[in-house]
Every structure is written in structure tokens, then in C-alpha cells.
Specification:
Blueprint (H helix, E strand, L loop, with lengths): L1 E3 L10 E3 H8 L3 H9 L6 E2 L5 E3 L1 H16 L4 H33 L12 H7 L1 E2 L17 E2 L3
Antiparallel strand pairs: 1-2, 2-4, 3-4, 5-6
């Protein structure tokens, strides 16, 4: 029995009571309460303090039950695994954002770029050396016999 329904298309669509979830997954309601006490599940609550489980909560429960039933992981291990999964998902999201930033940066010209960075010839023309090998303190206009220093 569905207790409440959110707006269509949202992640919160489909909220189920503890008895419905317990029956669906073949566990006792006390098991779900234990998972909540241990911090493995966090169902929302109604004003009357009734637990309501979303589709995301049930997906999390499926992972918990798979780890405990199929792989024999204890609840402390489940907590560690779930925390590691959250961190990995956050890291993957950061990597995707970084790759998107790099791709965007490489395809979009940077308007704040210094025009002299890529203008080697005008920069070279301003660095003249006198015959003694010292840099001039003030650049002079280029003459035929002046030497250009390569950088």
C-alpha cells in the first residue's frame, strides 16, 4: 500500500510505509528500524512520525540486503562500504566536472589571455643588447646593426 505520492517525475515519487517495504523485501519491520538506528537507512517521516521509504531508500535497502545476505558482510562492514560508495560517487562526479571544464576550456578561447604571450616577435624586438652584452635599460628603435636576443 502506497502511503503518499510526490509530484510526478521527482525522485521522491512513491513513498512506502515500513510494512510495505518489509513485506516487499522479506524482512521484519524491526530489521528496517535497526538499519535506521545504525544510520544505514534514513526514511523520511510524516507529521505523525510514520516512516516513509522512497525509491532511493529501497535501492539502498537492496544494496544492504545484498551485502548482508549474499556476501555475509556485517553491519559495520556495510556502513564502511556504503560510505566508500558515496565517496567514489562524489569523486566520479568531480572528475566528470573537471573533464567537462577542460573540454570547455580547450574549445573556448580565453579572452583574458595576455596578447604578448603568443607575440614573440614584438617581444624580441623590445629586448636589445648592446655590444658589451648588457641589456639596455630602455628599448631603442631597431636599427640594422642591432642584435636581437632569442629567448
Amino acid at each position: 500500500m502506497m502511503a503518499a505520492r510526490g509530484k510526478s517525475g521527482t525522485k521522491k515519487e512513491g513513498r512506502y510505509t515500513i510494512s510495505v517495504v518489509a513485506e516487499r523485501f522479506g524482512v521484519h519491520a524491526q530489521t528496517l528500524r535497526l538499519y535506521e538506528r545504525e544510520g544505514l537507512l534514513a526514511p523520511s517521516r510524516t507529521r505523525g512520525n510514520t516512516r516513509l521509504y522512497t525509491e532511493d531508500d529501497m535501492a539502498q535497502l537492496a544494496v544492504i540486503l545484498s551485502l548482508t545476505r549474499d556476501l555475509g558482510v556485517n553491519l559495520a562492514g556495510v556502513e564502511i562500504i556504503l560510505n566508500m560508495r558515496k565517496k567514489m560517487e562524489a569523486m566520479q562526479r568531480q572528475i566528470r566536472e573537471f573533464v567537462q571544464f577542460v573540454n570547455t576550456s580547450m574549445t573556448t578561447p580565453d579572452v583574458t589571455e595576455d596578447p604578448l604571450t603568443n607575440a614573440i616577435i614584438p617581444l624580441r624586438a623590445s629586448l636589445r643588447v648592446d655590444p658589451t652584452g648588457r641589456k639596455d635599460s630602455a628599448p631603442e628603435p631597431a636599427s640594422e646593426d642591432s642584435e636581437i636576443v632569442d629567448l
